[in-house]
Amino acid sequence: MFKTLIVILMSSVLVNNYVLSKFLGICPFLGVSKKLDQATGMGLSVIFVMLVSTAVTYPIQKFVLDRLGLGYLQTIVFILVIAALVQFIEIVLKKFIPSLHRSLGIYLPLITTNCAVLGVTIQNITDGYNFLESMVSSLGCGLGFLLAMVLFSGVRSRIENCDAPECFKGLPATLIAASIVSLSFFGFAGIVENLFA
Amino acid sequence: MLYNILIAVAVVSGIGLICGIVLALASHFMAVKVDEKKEAVRACLPGVNCGACGYTGCDGYAAALVKGDAEVNLCIPGADAVAKKLAEVLGVEFTDVIEKVAIVHCGGDCKSTERKEIYEGIETCAAANLLYGGTGKCSFGCLGFGDCKAVCKSNAICIEDGIAHVSTTLCIGCGMCVRACPKHIISLVPDIIQTVVFCSNREKGATVRKECVSGCIGCKKCEKLCPEQAIVVRDNLAEVDSQKCTGCGICADNCPVGCIKVGSFLGAHK
């Protein structure tokens, strides 16, 4: 049981990294990875939102959609619920933890309809995980997102200081770097399953 | 068939309704009271977040104003217009803002001085300065990579002939460039100033002469000739007292190296 959870966690961080292997959540990956502190803030917010939205969408899927045979409404219901949830969290944070709201506040609306968050919740259902496994998988995906953001912000700060040809400056150089980082993550495929074999 | 559709509609609208109700309740019960006065004060400020007032951005200054900890005349980019608005909102007396402009105290362009090394590295002043104090022969002078230009929000700085120039008519006096310059040769001065010494070199005259033909050699000619005693040579460098200076131009006409310039340096506010 414990071993399964570790495998799920490691594989969602490294092998099935949402940004670098599944190419979900590219918008914040390119948009907020310019500086390390912003990248960390965004990554932590994503972990938080992924965990909370999995905790909410999983029961909805099991107890509402599956019971009534409405599996095809998954996407629209999940978007609705996650968007409302993030708004709710923002209100709560603003009231009770203003300091956290100031540091996460600007990122929360960005995550409202982030495809990585929706992707995690749907993937958990598709993979047939139980509730605990889903939560671990969400945590892993969030950590993977944070890892990708932090790594890439480092890469990006190096690119900023490079004397690149004029036509590659800015987004083109960033996209090429992103593809190289993503290639390097393919090296992890097949590692995690064999770790405990 | 119709039954299935009805169920689907009911489920989605039910979930939507629940979400809506929860959000409505949350925003009602957990509403954070925003200080209206602070909002009004914040709306008066320009929002450049330059920090010239000494607080952390416009929000910080607004908070201090509402508390009553700060004077209304601290916003230099906003100048008198903002100070008047602030005084009105807060109901206090208007105090005049001392508008300032940034001046780059260096005249060592490519015609006056030479490079001592060929630099191939990160093209910022901060990076170049770390390597033996920069590329120029004069270790006090402008490096010309434009760190100041990069931070300037009003596009008032241009790099010409290898050194930075501030177009004072565009300068709002926020002081971002002052903090960005690794050589500390940019200063904020009251914009009533009429005479400026374009040099920061404090070496002895003979050394300066070898490094840059436009550098102040500390000959004290200006000090002797000034009818108002507004210019003093301190540590081999002429300094102007803007309060005493009348802008007569005698110092500039008689400066042997031509590093003193007389003119109007009024900022963007005038």
Please describe what this structure looks like.
The complex is a heterodimer of chains A (197) and B (270). Chain A is mainly alpha-helical and 197 residues long. Chain A is 76% helix and 0% strand. In chain A, helix 1 runs parallel beside helix 8, helix 3 crosses helix 7 (115-126) and helix 8 crosses helix 9. The two termini of chain A are 14 Å apart. Chain B has 270 residues and is α+β, with helices and mostly antiparallel strands. In chain B, 34% of the residues lie in helices and 12% in strands. Chain B has helices spanning 2-29, 36-44, 57-67, 79-90, 125-130, 147-151, 176-180, 205-211, 221-225, 250-254, and strands spanning 100-104, 157-160, 163-166, 186-190, 195-197, 231-234, 237-240, 260-262. In chain B, the strands form four sheets. Chain B has a two-stranded antiparallel sheet. The radius of gyration of chain B is 27 Å and the shape is elongated. The model of chain B has no long low-confidence stretch (mean pLDDT 87). Classes of the chains: A mainly alpha (197), B alpha+beta (270). The A-B interface holds A 60, 64-65, 68, 70, 73, 76-77, 80-81, 84-85, 87-88, 91-92, 94-96, 98, 161, 163 and B 7-8, 11-12, 15-16, 19-20, 22-23, 26-27, 30-32, 122-123.
Q: How much of the polypeptide of chain B forms β-strand, as a percent range?
A: 5-15%
The CATH architecture term of the largest domain in chain B is 2-Layer Sandwich
Structural class of chain B: alpha+beta
Largest sheet of chain B: 2 strands, antiparallel
Lateral arrangement of strands in the main beta sheet of chain B: 1-4
**Oligomeric description of these chains:** heterodimer
Q: Looking at CATH, which topology of the largest domain in chain B would you report?
A: Alpha-Beta Plaits
Mean pLDDT of chain A: 85
Overall pLDDT confidence of chain B: 87
Largest interface: pair, residues per side? A-B, 22 and 17 residues
Instruction: Using the alpha-carbon principal axes, give the shape of chain B.
Output: elongated
Low-pLDDT ranges of chain B: none
Helix/strand/pairing category of chain A: mainly alpha
